[in-house]
Amino acid sequence: MIPLTNSLGSLGWKTFFLWLVLLIPGIVGFLKGQGFNDLYKNYWGQLLPSANLHVTEAVVLIFIFVPVFLLYWRAIKISRRSRLVEVTAWTTLFTVTLMLLFPFACDDIYYYIASGQLQATYEMNPYFKTAHQVSHWSMDPFLRTTGWGFLLSPYGPIWNMTSSLLVVSANDQFWLAVGLFKAFAGLLHMINFFLIGFIAKQLDLHPSQAMTIYGWNPLILFELPGHAHNDVLLLLFLIIAFVCLATKWKLLALPFLTLSAMVKYTSVLLGPLIMLWLLHKKKYLPLVFGTFLSILLIPLVWIPYWNGLDTLEGLFRQINFYSIKSLHYLLLNSLPQWFPHMLKTQAFLLSSWVMLVLFGITYFLLLFFLWRQKKQLDIIGLARFGCIAFLLYLFFVNKWFQPWYFSWMIPLVALTRWPCAISLTALLLSCTAELSRVPQLLFENNGFLVQVLTVIIIWLPLVTYRQIKNF
């Protein structure tokens, strides 16, 4: 057994037992022999069948995420005194534990499986066909378990290729497919964890602290190994891009960032930042040839799927989906109250354009400030600017806001010097984003008050920025 220091060992055991609580309903449901629908709809009902399930879930989220986050915060503070083997052992244990979690808070994994099945079994293009367009789709467990069977794929071709390969590997066994997607997410999380340590060493940061920031983050663990979100693959390519920047392989930084954007498109936000960084470091060869390779890469990965601009219809549709957690949604519902004669379509256009313009202005200012840094800007500074870019996008532009989108910032936070205002704020946001589920669960509606509470909970750390800055 690996010897553990009292401090990190104590935090690790407490964190581990808290994560175990999330597994218990799934284990009980499995022992009862319950099917997918019962287990998904009544996950917490396995333990408290007479209780209100929504209230139960809200209470569990509060009593799990708040203490786990406080333990995580403490672990970051003491991690500089901890050995890499200890941080690695605990991260591995947490990852394996969350890989065993039944995905109850979100069903994206089942949409990934359905998209893979469309390609692997029915030889259909997920950018043009949906699960519900397959005859007898309700008889196929790979297709009927998703609540998004009407949706064309909004993801990049790299992810759809991956989904297809994982479904093929499941050999027509649905639960094996679920396990493979979870195992894939857990494996990539651990690879990302080690890559963060490698970069930190190159940048003269403390590797064990950087690895703790990424590997122990509650949102990362719950959403990536826990719910198998494809953001883990986006992060893999993004982190490799920073590996390239920190080593002699700078030529490949932009191509790897392009691969990241071919999983989910938001990675393109870092493209101009990296290009400016290469430009004023006078790395002209990586800038020119990296851009050239990226341009070549895009059509190559799209070849199996591309059939004109209609291929992007799923993406265009999702851009206009609204989540209750989105600031856009709150603004959209507020405008008719302020202006009673305003039509819903007018409110939609006005709110969309105002937020887009605000994002454009702030993102341009971000690029301007980055350029003004000149030679003082190192990779650590670039990571900080990248974190701000994602934050601006999530605040101003993203309509379909989801808690796991904050996972994009966590590797960049791990590569900043601790503590700094932006890293502290981003980590607090990763906690409040998960807690933002609580109002909707407690009140069981999407009313205006619930929307206001949800948005306030998510963005509360921004209000306390000055206090955080003086942490």
Verbal overview:
By secondary structure, the protein is mainly alpha-helical. 67% of the residues lie in helices and 0% in strands. The longest helix is centred in the middle third of the chain and has 29 residues. The N terminus is likely disordered.
Please describe the topology of this protein.
Blueprint: H1 6-31, H2 36-41, H3 53-78, H4 84-99, H5 108-120, H6 141-144, H7 157-170, H8 174-202, H9 207-215, H10 218-223, H11 231-246, H12 253-261, H13 271-280, H14 284-302, H15 313-319, H16 327-338, H17 344-372, H18 379-397, H19 410-414, H20 421-435, H21 438-443, H22 448-463, H23 465-469
Helix pairs in contact: 1-3, 1-4, 3-9, 4-8, 4-9, 5-7, 7-8, 8-9, 8-11, 11-12, 12-14, 16-17, 16-22, 17-18, 20-22
